[in-house]
Design a protein that fits this description.
The protein is α/β, with parallel strands linked by helices. It contains 20 helices and 32 strands. It is globular, with a radius of gyration of 30 Å.
Length: 708
C-alpha cells in the first residue's frame, strides 16, 4: 500500500489573554503512523503571568453566573462540538489512534460535557454558591446556627494533560471546573496538542463561553508555575516522576496551591478462583484483557497491566489470549480493517521497549513478535505489537509491580489463593482501577473489600452485567477517576464531587433568619411570611422561599386509628392492641405515623385544580414524638427552596419543583413529625425554554441563544 500524501503542516497556536499567539518556528512533531512532519509547536513569547492574571480578572464574570446558567452553556457547547466531531476524527488518526479509539476520546469527552450539564441542572441550585450539608444548631434557644457554603475559588484552574487523550483529558477537567465557576488554562501534552488546539479553536469561535473562561498553551509551559497564587489550582495527568517534581515546586509549596495528580497505575484484573474455562466469566476476562492491551495501543492510564489468574488456569488463559490477540490487526488506523494503531511517537515506543527489556529480567514473553503491518511504516512509525509476559513468581518479583510499559503490554501473574490475589493487586502501591471477574458473590466481596483501600474504582464483571458494563478501563463522569499512592491521590470527575473540589468551603454562623436570607433556603427557626393567598394557589414564579401556611387543628380520635388500620391493613399492636400498647415503649395506643402524614396533607392541601400539579416526593421524614388518642395536631408548611426544571422533549408545560418543609406539632407545641415535600408546580415560560419555530422545530426563546 502506497504511503498517503504528506499532510499539511499544522501550526497549533496558544490562546491567551483573549488572542491567538503563534510562532513560525518551534518543535516539529511527527505523525505516529508514517513518521512524517505533522505539526510545529511553540509557546515562545507567551507571558504566563499575564495569562494567569487575565484569567483571574475575567473569572469574576464567570463567578457571577449561576450553576444552571453555566450548565446551559456547557450543554450548548457540547451540542456545538458534537456537530463538528468529524473535524477532530480527521486529525485523530495522525496520533496513531483508530476511529474506535477516537470515539472514546472525542465523543467520550463531549459526552462528559453533556453529563456535567445534566448533573448540575438536576442536583445544584440555580445559585452562585452551594449550601453544603445540614444546618447546625449552635445554641439551646435555636437563635444561633451555622452552615457550610461552597463558593468559587477566585483563581485559575491550570490543567496539565497527557498525550493519550487530548480531547477527553481536556474536557473531563474543564467540565467540573467550569460548572464550579473557575476559569481554565489548559496545557496539553505537545505530542497531540494539535488535536486539542483544533477543538479549542471551535470553542472560542462559538462564543458560548464567557471571555477568559478558557485559555490554551500548546508549547512549553515555561515559568507558568512561578506565577501561581493561593486561589489557583493545578490538575496534572502524566508520569509519577514528573508529578513528584511539580508538586514540590517552590511556589506551589509556598502558596499552598492545591495540586491534584493522576499518574502511573499498574492496574490489576483478577480472574476469580472459582471460574472454570467453560464459564462465561472466563471468556469475559480474556476479552477484557485483550481489549485493554490493544485499545489506544495500550496507552491508557486505566489499562490492565497485571492480569491475575489462578495458577491452574495459566496455560488456558495464555492459549485463549493468543487466539483473541491473534485477531488484532495492526497498522494505519485510518483503515477500516485495522484494530490497533501506533503508539504516539517513536520515542514513546522506544521507552516501552526499554521497559519490556527490564520486565524480561523477571518475566518471559509468551505472546509477542511482529505481525504483518496493514499500512504504516514499521521503521518511521511508532508500531509495537501486543506483548504478553508471564511472571511465574509474582509475589517475589519487583519489576512487574514497579515498571509500567505504557503500551500494548501486560504481565500475566498466577496466584494460589484469594489472599495472594489481593496481596498482588495491592503490590501496585495504588491504582486507578481494578476488576474482579467472577460470578461468585462471596469471592467478589472478599476481593473488592480486600483491595478497596488502594484503588479508586473497582469493577465486578460477570454474566449479569456484561452487556451493560462499560469495561475495566472506562472512567465515567459520575464516578471517581483517581487513585491513592502511586496513582497520585487525584480526585477527578466523581460526579458533583469534582465540582466541589474546585470550590472553597466556608462555615457561616448567624441567626436563622439571616442565614436563610443568605442561602435562599428556609431554615427552621427563621422568620416566615404568611399570606391570605394559599401557597398552593401560587405559581412557581410567585412562590417565595419562606412563604408559609399554619393549618387548622385536628384532634386524633380512636376512630381515626381504627379506620386507618382497617384501610391500610396495618394492625400493629401499638395502634390497635390496648394491652400490648400499654406494655410497649409508649405506654398507650398511638396513631400510625403515616396517618399523621395523611392527616397533615388534609390540613394543608388546597383541593381545587391549580398551579400545583403533583406530589413529587417526600424526604427526610422523622417521627419525633408519639401522638395518642385525644392529642391535637396542626401543621406548618413552609417553602424551603425552589428548583426550576427544564422542559423535556415532548413536554409543553413548564414546571419547577418546590420543596416544602413540614412540621407537625401537638397541642403543647411539641414537634411530633418533620419532613420535606416536593411538589411539581407550573411556572411561566422563560428565555431558556424551547419554542416551536415556523417549521415545527425547537429552538431557544429570544435571549436564551446558544448560551442556554
Amino acid at each position: 500500500m502506497a504511503t498517503p500524501p504528506q499532510p499539511k503542516i499544522l501550526r497549533p497556536a496558544s490562546y491567551v489573554y483573549g488572542q491567538w499567539h503563534a510562532n513560525p518556528e518551534g518543535q516539529t512533531l511527527l505523525d505516529a503512523v508514517y513518521g512524517r512532519p505533522v505539526a510545529v509547536i511553540s509557546s515562545e513569547g507567551v507571558d504566563f503571568a499575564q495569562a494567569l492574571a487575565y484569567g483571574r480578572e475575567k473569572g469574576a464574570a464567570l463567578r457571577k453566573l449561576t450553576f444552571h446558567t453555566r450548565a446551559r452553556m456547557l450543554r450548548a457547547l457540547a451540542t456545538y462540538l458534537m456537530e463538528r466531531k468529524e473535524d477532530y476524527y480527521a486529525l485523530n488518526a495522525l496520533t496513531g489512534a483508530t476511529r474506535r479509539d477516537g470515539w472514546v476520546d472525542i465523543e467520550g469527552g463531549i459526552g462528559t460535557l453533556f453529563a456535567y450539564s445534566s448533573m448540575a441542572r438536576r442536583e445544584l441550585p440555580d445559585e452562585r454558591f452551594l449550601p453544603d450539608g445540614k444546618v447546625e444548631t449552635l445554641g439551646k434557644g435555636g437563635t444561633f446556627v451555622a452552615r457550610h457554603l461552597l463558593v468559587p475559588r477566585e483563581g485559575v484552574a491550570v490543567q496539565i494533560n497527557a498525550y493519550n487523550f487530548p480531547i477527553w483529558g481536556m474536557l473531563e477537567k474543564l467540565a467540573p471546573s467550569f460548572i464550579a465557576g473557575m476559569p481554565t488554562l489548559v496545557k496539553p501534552a505537545p505530542q497531540t496538542a494539535y488535536l486539542a488546539e483544533r477543538m479549542v479553536r471551535d470553542i472560542i469561535a462559538s462564543g458560548i463561553l464567557p471571555e477568559g473562561a478558557l485559555q490554551l498553551v500548546t508549547g512549553d509551559p515555561g515559568d507558568l508555575l512561578d506565577h501561581l497564587q493561593e486561589q489557583d489550582m493545578v490538575a496534572f495527568t502524566g508520569s509519577a516522576a514528573t508529578a513528584n517534581k511539580l508538586r514540590v515546586h517552590p511556589n506551589i509549596v509556598a502558596r499552598a496551591v492545591p495540586f491534584s495528580v493522576e499518574a502511573d497505575s499498574l492496574n490489576a484484573s483478577v480472574l476469580g478462583l472459582t471460574v472454570k474455562p467453560e464459564d462465561p466469566e472466563f471468556a469475559l476476562f480474556v476479552k477484557e484483557v485483550a481489549r485493554e492491551m490493544t485499545g489506544k495501543a495500550g496507552q491508557k492510564c486505566t489499562a490492565i497491566r497485571r492480569p491475575l489468574v489462578p495458577r491452574h488456569l495459566v496455560d488456558a488463559v495464555v492459549e485463549a489470549l493468543k487466539k483473541e490477540l491473534g485477531k488484532v490487526t495492526v497498522g494505519d488506523p485510518a483503515r477500516d480493517d485495522v484494530r490497533m494503531g501506533a503508539l504516539v511517537s517513536v520515542e514513546q515506543r522506544e521507552r516501552v521497549r526499554e521497559t519490556l527489556q527490564k520486565l524480561g529480567e523477571e518475566a518471559e514473553v509468551v505472546i509477542g513478535g511482529e505481525r504483518e503491518l496493514m499500512g504504516g511504516d514499521r521503521e518511521k512509525g511508532a508500531f509495537l505489537d501486543p506483548t504478553l509476559l508471564l511472571c511465574r513468581d509474582p509475589l517475589n518479583a519487583k519489576g512487574p509491580h514497579e515498571l509500567e510499559a505504557f503500551g500494548p503490554v501486560a504481565t500475566l501473574m498466577p496466584y494460589d489463593s484469594l489472599d495472594d490475589a489481593i496481596k498482588l493487586a495491592k503490590m501496585g502501591r495504588g491504582s486507578l482501577a481494578a476488576s474482579i471477574i467472577t460470578h461468585d458473590r462471596a469471592e467478589a466481596t472478599e476481593v473488592v473489600l480486600g483491595i478497596a483501600s488502594t484503588h479508586g474504582r473497582v469493577l465486578v464483571l460477570n454474566r449479569e452485567d456484561a452487556k451493560e458494563s462499560t469495561g475495566h478501563g472506562s472512567p465515567l463522569p459520575q464516578l471517581l477517576h483517581g487513585g491513592p499512592g502511586r496513582a497520585g491521590g487525584g480526585a477527578e470527575m466523581a460526579g458533583l464531587a469534582g465540582v466541589r473540589h474546585h470550590m472553597n468551603k466556608v462555615a457561616v454562623q448567624a441567626d436563622p433568619t439571616t442565614l436563610a436570607a443568605m442561602t435562599r433556603e428556609h431554615i427552621p427557626g427563621a422568620e416566615v411570611r404568611e399570606d391570605v393567598i394559599h401557597p398552593f394557589r401560587k405559581t412557581f414564579d410567585q412562590i417565595q422561599v419562606g412563604d408559609s401556611l399554619l393549618t387548622h387543628r385536628r384532634t386524633v380520635t380512636e376512630a381515626d386509628i381504627v379506620n386507618f388500620a382497617a384501610l391500610t391493613g396495618d394492625h400493629f399492636y401499638a395502634h390497635v392492641d390496648d394491652i400490648g400498647a400499654r406494655e410497649g415503649i409508649f405506654g398507650k395506643r398511638v396513631a400510625h405515623g403515616y396517618f399523621l402524614i395523611s392527616a397533615a396533607a388534609g390540613q394543608f392541601v388546597s383541593p381545587a385544580p391549580g398551579p400545583v400539579l403533583a406530589n413529587y416526593g417526600l424526604e427526610n421524614l422523622r417521627f419525633v414524638e408519639p401522638v395518642g388518642i385525644g392529642d391535637t395536631i396542626r401543621t406548618r408548611l413552609t417553602c424551603k427552596r425552589k428548583i426550576r426544571k427544564d422542559l423535556r422533549p415532548g413536554e409543553t408545560r413548564p414546571t419547577g419543583v418546590v420543596e416544602w418543609h413540614a412540621e407537625i406539632r401537638n397541642q403543647d407545641e411539641v414537634l411530633v413529625a418533620t419532613y420535606d415535600i416536593l411538589t411539581l408546580v407550573e411556572r411561566a415560560r422563560d428565555e431558556f425554554d424551547p419554542v416551536e419555530d415556523a417549521e415545527g422545530g425547537r429552538q431557544m426563546a429570544e435571549g436564551g441563544s446558544a448560551r442556554a
